[in-house]
Amino acid sequence: MSDRSGGPGESPVVEEVGNRREVGPVAQTVIVIGTLAAIAVSIHQLFNLQLFGIVLLEGAYLYILAGVFLSMTFLCFRGTRRPQAGVPWWDAILAAASALCAAYFTWTADASLELGWEYAAPDLARWMSILMWLLILEATRRAGGTAIFVIVVAFSLYPTFADKMPGPISAFAQPFWDAIPYHIISSESSFGIPMRAFGSLVIGFILFGTVLQRTGGGQFFNDLALALVGRYRGGAAKVSIFASGFMGSMSGSVISNVLTTGAVSIPAMKRTGFSARYAAATEACASTGAVLMPPIMGATAFVMASFLSRPYVEIALAAAIPSLLYYFGLFVQVDAYSARRKLKGLTPAEVPSLRRAMREGWVYLFVFSLLIFMMVALRQDTLAPFYATGLLLVINQALKKYRFTLRRAIDLIVNVGRALAELVAVLLGVGLIVGAFSATGLAGTLVNDLIFLAGGSTLMLLVMGAVTSFIFGMGMTVTACYIFLAVVLAPALVQAGLNVLAVHLFILYWGMISYITPPVALGAFTAATLANTSPLKTGLEAMRLGGVIYITPFFFVLNPALVGEAGTVEVLAVLITALVGVWFIGAALQGYVSFVGGFGVGALGWAMRGLLLVSGGFFAFPGGGELGFSHWTLSGIGLALAVPALLHASRQDARAASAQAVKPLPIRSP
Length: 670
Description:
The chain has a two-stranded antiparallel ribbon with strand order 1-2. Helix 5 (123-144) packs across helix 17, helix 8 packs across helix 10 (235-251) and helix 26 packs antiparallel against helix 27 (603-620). The chain has helices at residues 25-46, 58-76, 89-107, 109-115, 123-144, 146-161, 176-185, 193-214, 217-229, 235-251, 254-271, 276-290, 300-308, 312-340, 354-376, 384-398, 406-440, 442-454, 458-475, 478-488, 490-495, 500-512, 522-531, 535-545, 548-558, 568-590, 603-620, 631-661; strands at 592-593, 597-598. The chain is an all-alpha fold and 670 residues long. It has a domain at 566-655.
């Protein structure tokens, strides 16, 4: 299935970006047909249409999706970094083999369930399992990278040598001939929770997010951000925060969000006075936090909903307060930086009017209203994105500016297929890790070992969990890291008495931190490339700008009120004091308190900044627990510490204003 340029009139193969392959017309046709077929099967399954009397078992349904998107992985992603003209013949064979394996397991789904093939498969099923296992590993390598590939290979083979491992990680071993069929046929491994979440929730929301961006939704949210905050001081950076937040919540990808919104926002920030390093760090932080922001939150939130057996809307509502705290902290720092450097906003010519933005894009708010109504009021998490997508497509054809031509429709479907293929490849690979723990029973052993090492201290266990999440986040995608830690780490934290929903959000947050924290800092390094500045310095600046993300997880896991797991009055009280605390922390990190003033230079200024930083910690830190103080007592201490710091900043600002007022005018020569 080579897409090499042929005769005149054929589109030549275009450039390849990263590990992704820009496909030609033949492969595009296959991707379009496969994507439409997979979406049609999903609609048939999730809406329970039973057309022609067809009823699919969940296993058969997931095998169909895997066959389609696993095949497309070999068309969309190169096996080597060397540029290739089109899809080579060996990748076409791998794609066909993936479809063949999935078709076999779809056809035998009934028999494998009735006869327990995951424990005693016939020889043909074993050989097909080994072939599919190899294809999954290669697809994971292409879509997820070498680091996750190595981890997946090691863990998928772990059941074969588990008895030879040292005490804490020793378990019963299985022969290779039995372990691999378990991975492919059972509902506890590759086709376990990750793929079930994909088949029931993720596919619809990825489709919705991609269609929203391609039908003008991304442009509307960018114009809305410009209209709301573009004209104020530091407006370009504030627009970046809002626009990246909206776009990242739809795409669910930090890197793609940096590349798309950063290409516009970073030059605008530099043009209005922000340093290249600060502009890149702002974009990296905004894009990273977007993946944690409702209503879409990327694929990981849907996997979390499946793990916890809770409606997705509960996960989104729980993530709303931590997300608000993060973006408020980022906004406060950008405003303080802009005030300290006396930066201006965008020019009137660069800022669309709010009325025009709303007039051109109000329909997108209606689409979101439908989505949220169906999720919150009707509890139709699975079906909501399909209805919202259908409404988007109808609206799109009514708007001349974004109306689909055949070419644009094909590009949309190809982008949907590529995004789904990339995700399926990673989820199938990560499922092998889950299967290894299931097959050996290692998860329970590790839980007890972690609790023992923490010595009964909840705070120490959280610190160990944060470090573990950060380390694994450096080498895995967000979803892969979360799935691994949800199996290994989350049970230990829950067993220590912590709220289960807060625990899962805790490991999700700390798995994300590596995107802005050196030595990896993929989000910061990508933004630095766009800004033409030092990657390491950008990473360090991003750590300061995104500082709230390092402490917020500890706050909400120690006080579940910050994820909505308490009464309304307590949630509001804790949220208000947390916002004050985040404001003070951000001001201390930037050396300027918005609407009050700066701290000046010298030892006294630094001491006041430190005092305000500690004050912010007292405001934001939850009461009770190991400290033994109530929430209001901690807030009172924070207020007492903040007063001298704020008075100092106010006096410094008054002195600066007075000095500016009496500054002599320059004498002009006659």
